[in-house]
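Why do we care about 3D structure at all? Because function follows from shape, and shape follows, mostly, from sequence. That is the central idea of this module. The next example makes it concrete: a single protein chain, its amino acid sequence, and then its structure expressed as tokens.
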Amino acid sequence: MANRSQIQARAAMMRVRFEAAGAQVVDTPLLQSAETLLDLYGEDIRARAYVTSDALRGEQMLRPDFTLPVVQMHMRDGAEPARYTYSGEVFRRQEHDPDRANEYIQVGYEVFDRDDPAGADAEVFSLFALQLRGLPLRAATGDIGILTAAVQGLRTSDQRKAALMRHLWRPRRFRALLDRFAGRKPELDHRAALLAAADPMACDAPVIGKRRPAEIAARIDALRADRDTPPISDTEMAGLDSLLGVRETMPYALEHLRDIAVDLPQIIPALDRLEARIAALQARGVDVGKLDFEASYGRTSMEYYDGFVFGFYAERRPDLPPIATGGRYDALTRQLGNGAEIPAVGGVLRPDLMLEIEEAGQ
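And the structure:
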């Protein structure tokens, strides 16, 4: 098992390689504003972050990752285009998996560039592949933007599309909603009874809780509107089912997705971006004919990514988390930029896991 000094030495070496690619070295505070993290991730972040507080600064969290503070720094006073690299500790609670480290070192590389998003995607992926060269790893890629475009272009109500987008990162909940909106699952009995009542607000007992009667009535009106919305068509459902099942090498995945676009034409612009990314990867020497693409990849662990996503995995060590992950997060820059935004892509690597794999192979 590598010791801390070995891990730090490897991290420093990797950071130097990113500097050679044009990145500026940055650092961020260990303590991050809990308010910002909660706004971004919701209360779910509490289950995986260490929380502290004081009278002056309020509630704070030990840094769960670097991307958020680096984006904040760039949106506040960064030049364009910009490339950043960093290394340091992050902290994650592992109460459900005590064998996983709750403190470890990450090395990262982030690109903020408006001119060539496909080229930036390829730049980040190829630099990560070079850092990991020689290790027995499988690379997986995907594109959250294709599924997002498919959902946003459905011929259904804005309310239903918003519900699907909220649960895009929870595949089981997303599927349950999709089946209900398509009429494949019956409406819940208690909801049907409530909406069938002549006056759903009629009740002998006093209303107890935080919601006011007007809010409850508005919710009932929204449920009635949803009940009266026609189901998602069989054609669109067939297209979504096919899209979610795509798992092939990149060129074949694109070909398959072009066929699916006959039923889901709203994904065509996202497929054009995928095609440009494939060309950019090829230009950087990546063998896309052997690069896996999964349309659903990243939906359970990459909540702020909204486009290209990737990860590197040790298939001989399924007990290990990803050795590296990354992707595009344009929407995050908009969310943290107070109206400003810039296309951005980046990722992080785990030098401790790289050393562990190297030692196992000796």
